[in-house]
Amino acid sequence: MAAASQHRYFAETIAIGSELLVGGRSDSNSLFIADTLASIGIKVRFKSIVGDDKSDIAHVLKTAGRRAGIVIMTGGLGPTVDDCTRESVASVTGFRLARHKEAFESMRARLAQWGRTPNKKQLRQALIPSTATVLPNPVGSASGFAIIWRGTHLIALPGVPSEMKAMMEQSVVPLLAEQLDRSKDARPHPITRLIFHTWGLPESDVDAKLKGLIPKRTPVALGLLASPTGVLVSLTTKEDGHLKKGTLTSLAEEVRARLGEWIYAEGQNSIEQVVGRLLREQGRTVSVAESCTGGLIGQRLTQVPGSSAYVDRVAVCYSNRAKMEMLGVSEKLLEDHGAVSQEVAAAMAKGMRERADVSVALSVTGIAGPGGGTENKPIGLVYIGLAGGGDDVVTKEFRFHGDRSVIRQRAAQAALDMLRRWLVSRGTT
Fold first, then answer.
1. Whole-structure pTM over 0.85, yes or no?
2. Does residue 232 sit in the same domain as residue 91?
3. CA pair distance 68, 82, nearest whole angstrom
């Protein structure tokens, strides 16, 4: 790789867009880029976020070029006036912008698929710095580009996650891997990262269970990351490559042994994928009755391709009237116990299962806030019901914390985990 000094295998990501600085959006692109680069032994050492300002982008780009051998930018390649990544790269590197035939034809073909023709503004997307390699966009209309400037690889990609991901996998990784192969230096060791997703234990409890897991001087780092969907546990090899064969496998087995049933998935799998696989393997179907989650559980279940094989229906029964008319919950039950109660959660699940005629039904009812809480029923109180047929009706109470969005996410996660555990307990029967 034609990169200078010891920084040649270090990378920096630059997320470009003013919306990333004012709370409108979060930067998820850099995480994907870091994981992807690690697979070929390139470690991301720095991450920058900058708004849509040419001088600011230029300043960040100059700084990144001094300390990293690979700089990957995302964002600012669109057709509007605030998309100024191209101009900033041109001003820093001195490579003038010119309409690139390959970029233009790619954009025109993509727009034609959408029944559109390029307008004057969109022609800006075909402007590429001279000497740059065009990176085709298999999803969108804006091509990316890659150039070498003062020994540093500068790579510009769109900010749309789906476009960035496709271009990283199909263009950037092969390009960088080829450069690594050409280098006379020893190729860096791939950085392996094993991921375990847990639910139901707070971060402190997960940490306690894994205490002393990594022996001293073992080049593996243990990481914990808490979120509304649980605690992510990671085992990451360090880049020195001095790891004894089988060590990572043994550590992974120990993580599984220590955390057991609390692990719901590994790698890139989500809990809805795990639940979907179990439902399909067991030939079961599911329906969901949601109140406080407002369809979030159903959305997560149905975002899995092929979910129509096991998801029958999802009903958002927000009002008491909806619970009575759609699920058959009695008015007296609501009056005696309130909508947020163990009894109503059970009745919702049972009513949904009977009406849908499915193998299992879930229900959720709770107080997501910010209002509606009382001393006896505080904000964050959630009841989840599961009806598996006959007398197989179980409910569970949860006390979640956080704002409305977080409580809803945690309630949906808890419901899916409750279904997962129910399916696991029944095996393939």
1. no
2. no
3. 26
- The Cα 264–Cα 32 span in angstroms is 22
Contact 256, 235 (CB under 8 A): no
- Which of 153, 182, 211 is where one domain is finished? 182
Q: Do 49 and 31 contact (CB within 8 A), yes or no?
A: no
Token output for 128? 């590429």
Q: pLDDT tens-digit profile of 51-92?
A: 999 999 999 999 999 999 999 999 999 888 889 999 999 999
Residues 105 and 218: their CA atoms lie apart, in Å, by: 52
Whether 398 is in a domain gets the answer: yes
**Mean pLDDT, the chain, integer:** 92
Both tokens assigned to 150? 């003062």
Structurally, the chain folds into a number of domains equal to 3
Angle between helices 54-67 and 85-93 (to 10 degrees): 50
Residue 257, H or E segment:
helix 247-259
Residues 19 and 44 in one domain: yes
In this structure, the answer to whether residues 108 and 154 fall within a common structural domain is: yes
Where in the sequence is the domain holding 199, given as residue range(s)? Answer: 193-266
In the numeric block, the tokens 């590197």 are attached to: 93
Spatial distance between the Cα atoms of 250 and 264, rounded to a whole number of angstroms: 19
- Beta strands (DSSP E) in 8-112 are 10-16, 43-50, 70-74, 97-99
Confidence of residue 186 (pLDDT cuts 50, 70, 90): low
